[in-house]
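Self-study notes.
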Amino acid sequence: MLIIGLAGGIASGKSFVATEIQRMGAAVIDADLLGHQVLMMDEVREKLVIEFGTQILDSRGSIDRKALAALVFGGDSDARHRLRKLEEITHPRIESLVKEQLRAYRETGFPAVVVDAAVMFKSGWNKWCDRVVFIHCSEKTRIERALQRGWTKEELQKRESNQFPLDQKLRLATDVVNNNDGVEPSLAEQIRALWVKWGLGEKKTPQKSTD
């Protein structure tokens, strides 16, 4: 089973690439979704409240992800320290779930699995991957897409400053696709070309997902 990691800037199109590779017959592991699951764990909630206080809870006593994000991406002098604390609590648990899903997909016979994780390099998960696809997208286009999501340019830049630098992601990638509209062949075409390049053949029908 080929393990494919995704890399790129925020709003570069990683989710679209993951979906296209899934259409070719791969399974997908969404680390962001697993992160949401981890925040629902009682032990994680308790540790985060001890670290950050009840200000991160919503009216039901659950983790308010927007309030938590405001603390760790706030841009003040202590934000990076708070982000490190959050990662120390959550990343080992997310990693455990990613590995668990990788084992399950290997057993069910998928030809490939995509690991979609913003912290791919920061957490060292690229070491598990046979291929790492970097999605190249201009900053202008990414800002436009972030604005459409309701983000500000400043919020995107703050979040991206806490990720692995884009030039280093590109250098560590094994494959590159371009997602600048109207310049290159369609992203779907580029993904199909990679599928063939990786020796996975044409589109396959996957077995039932273990999700």
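Second protein, same conventions, sequence then structure:
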Amino acid sequence: MNRSQFTTLTSEECDKLLDQLQSPKSPRHTPHVHHRNYTMALLMLDAGCRVGELVQLEQDQLWFANCAVGALTIEKRQAKNKHERTIPITVRLSEAIKKMHRDWWTESHDHGTRYAFYSTWCVRPLTVRQVQRIITSAGKLSIGRDIHPHLLRHTFGTRLMSKTSMRTVQELLGHTRLSSTQVYTHPSGEDKRKAIDSLNSTE
């Protein structure tokens, strides 16, 4: 794993990235396209989706029984390592899914798989490369960094590691080996700063 993969986004950088995706200063697309892009980023930041899993998501995995799901299940056929996992949905992701349903998922048809994220027709999902371009472009415009979708998943894992057990993080990320999860135990720049700042408050 190269050095760049060990970097994470700060909370402020995450907010700037999401703001850029949802409400860009120089909009190139319609508001519903911006919201689609925002929701995809949230699925990586708040649910740890890999970009390859994201583009395979179907509408009924996110919207079921006329409401946003409470937890997202990445199926074996979608997961990189064929390991199924279930991730509870955050409040802001749930709200984003509701808006996706209103803006994108109202059309019903029986012509094939109804993917969650697409451009013009739901049987043809966005490609991994298209999502990569969307995230990289937003990163450059919002925080001046050349970021990759995996960085959002890595940020998700790193944030979780400071709040729960490594075993829980392993389950949420879908790692088959605990050793894969251990890379998320590295301290971030924020962790180091907080550690030093704590010295200022001690006698």
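Instructor comment on the second fold: Residues 1-5 have pLDDT under 50 and may be disordered.
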